[in-house]
UniProtKB/TrEMBL annotation:
Family, per entry: Belongs to the thiolase-like superfamily. Beta-ketoacyl-ACP synthases family.
Origin organism lineage: Eukaryota, Viridiplantae, Streptophyta, Embryophyta, Tracheophyta
Gene Ontology MF annotations: 3-oxoacyl-[acyl-carrier-protein] synthase activity
Protein name: beta-ketoacyl-[acyl-carrier-protein] synthase I
EC number: 2.3.1.41
UniProt-listed PANTHER family: 3-OXOACYL-[ACYL-CARRIER-PROTEIN] SYNTHASE II, CHLOROPLASTIC, POLYKETIDE SYNTHASE-RELATED
Gene3D superfamilies: 3.40.47.10
Pfam families assigned: ketoacyl-synt, Ketoacyl-synt_C
Cellular component annotations (GO), alphabetically ordered: mitochondrion
Keyword Transferase (UniProt): yes
Organism: Iris pallida
Domain Ketosynthase family 3 (KS3) residue range list: 69-479
Top enzyme class: transferase
Length: 481
């Protein structure tokens, strides 16, 4: 489904403009729609683009009038991370360059070649999850439930406000890359004794969808409720799909993001077997070092991030604080390799270009990128090269990697990094790339944020997440005006 861009000049980005012109969506036939000259998207003719095929124009008019003004804003944020369990503490630690990487304490990993991770040492469900459920659930679900409810609290969703919501117009779309690995692993061990010893909650609480489902049950929200699992791109897929539910008029409010808790023997062992992890055990805080010549793999992390997405008019009517506007995003597939990025970065480049086109903005509008950059030899450079190809002529561009301080949160990484991007918009500061001591010779240090925080008036923030299987995802945020 393709919509023609609204007619705004480059000098006046669409999110600063007055009311948008109706988008054309045609039913029954393909029709060419001429675009504004300076914001024209590329097409085979150079002057027009083909718009998708649907049957009948009357339906198109109704649908266009229903959705043309629907904008999506972020009104709440919730996190569970090794650097804090609220957005401000988390971001202040990022700005100060605090590392959340340390030796693993949850289990004995002395025999493992990697013994460090971004492990949450202190976590409490008090006041957020019923004690009975807290004892049974996998930690990925507990992180998810707490981050989701904290996003509501952060968004001013008091009991009174919640009671007035149309629950059929509220949904939950929070994913996980790995799901309940601890519950499943414990059940496998129990099965070695007898199936009678297995946890009766093994199947439901190991499923990636169940965290999202349990939160919806707790809130009584009856709108769209599901999860998406696309490895480390999971959160971005969830956020963009949640926003699309709002844009289409199906809901007014969505909780969206990701959660993972894989710092357990099978999780650590599995990534070691992939030869993906850093082995800098003697210097945990210096182990995650995106774009540095001495990087030797990523560092596992855990936690959750959840955004409260809301239709603009709905948010305004209840007097919500608007942290940022969600502009759009995109997905692509490398269609190349199970774990390795495409050698020419084609999928990443296509994903970013599609995201800009879908949001109706130019590459000059973007001046901040929260990169996927995991601290792997190949991945960091392929992403950087794609960014340089697209944004390289922008002297104001700044790029950083949140993973330098918290490690790689797998399916939760995109949502937690989206919170970092939104906080950069709010505060006017972008956090450092710690451990960038000897930048790779292939990167431009003028583009990368250094080892100290930097001032930046963020116009548009791009947040990237890529996953095993060649899943590429990009989402865009901007200040709300």
């Amino acid at each position: 489904m393709v919509a023609a861009a609204a007619a705004y000049s480059v000098a006046s980005p669409w999110w600063l403009a007055p009311a948008a012109e109706p988008r054309e969506e045609l039913l029954g036939r393909t029709r060419k729609v001429r675009l504004p000259s300076r914001r024209r998207r590329r097409s085979s003719s150079g002057n027009a683009m083909a718009v998708a095929v649907y049957p009948g124009e009357a339906i198109a008019e109704k649908r266009t009038s229903h959705t043309k003004e629907r904008r999506v804003v972020v009104t709440g944020m919730g996190v569970e991370t090794t650097l804090g369990n609220d957005p401000d503490t988390f971001y202040n630690n990022l700005l100060e360059g605090v590392s959340g990487i340390s030796e693993i304490e949850a289990f004995d990993c002395a025999a493992y070649p990697t013994r460090i991770a971004g492990e949450i040492k202190s976590f409490s469900t008090d006041g957020w999850v019923a004690p009975k459920l807290a004892k049974r659930m996998d930690k990925f679900m507990l992180y998810l439930l707490c981050a989701g409810k904290k996003a509501l609290a952060n968004g001013g969703m008091s009991e009174e406000v919640m009671s007035q919501l149309d629950k059929a117009k509220c949904g939950v779309l929070i994913g996980s890359a790995m799901g309940g690995m601890k519950v499943f692993s414990d059940s496998v061990e129990a099965l070695m004794v007898s199936y009678r010893k297995m946890n009766p909650f093994c199947v439901p609480f190991a499923s990636t969808n169940m965290g999202s489902a349990m939160l919806a049950m707790d809130l009584g929200w009856m709108g769209p409720n599901y999860s998406i699992s696309t490895a480390c791109a999971t959160s971005n897929y969830c956020i963009l799909n949640a926003a699309n539910h709002i844009i289409r008029g199906e809901v007014d409010v969505m909780l969206s993001g990701g959660s993972d808790a894989c710092i357990i023997p099978i999780g650590l062992g599995g990534f070691i077997a992939c030869r993906a992890l850093s082995q800098r055990n003697n210097e945990p805080a210096r182990a995650s070092r995106p774009w540095d010549t001495d990087r030797d793999g990523f560092v596992m992390g855990e936690g959750a991030g959840v955004l409260l997405l809301e239709e603009l008019e709905h948010a305004k009517q209840r007097g919500a604080t608007i942290y940022a506007e969600f502009l759009g995003g995109s997905f692509t597939s490398d269609a190349y390799h199970i774990t390795e990025p495409h050698p020419e970065g084609k999928g990443v480049t296509l994903c970013i270009e599609k995201a800009l086109s879908q949001a109706g903005i130019t590459k000059e509008d973007v001046n901040y990128v929260n990169a996927h950059a995991t601290s792997t030899p190949a991945g960091d450079l392929k992403e950087y090269q794609a960014l340089a190809r697209i944004f390289g002529q922008n002297p104001q561009l700044k790029v950083n990697s949140t993973k330098s301080m918290i490690g790689h949160l797998l399916g939760a990484s995109g949502a937690v990094e989206a919170v970092a991007a939104i906080q950069a918009i709010r505060t006017g500061w972008v956090h450092p790339n710690i451990n960038l001591e000897n930048p790779d010779k292939s990167v431009d240090v003028n583009i990368l944020v250094g080892q100290k925080k930097e001032r930046l008036d963020v116009k548009v923030a791009l947040s990237n997440s890529f996953g095993f299987g060649g899943h590429n995802s990009c989402i865009l945020f901007a200040p709300y005006h």
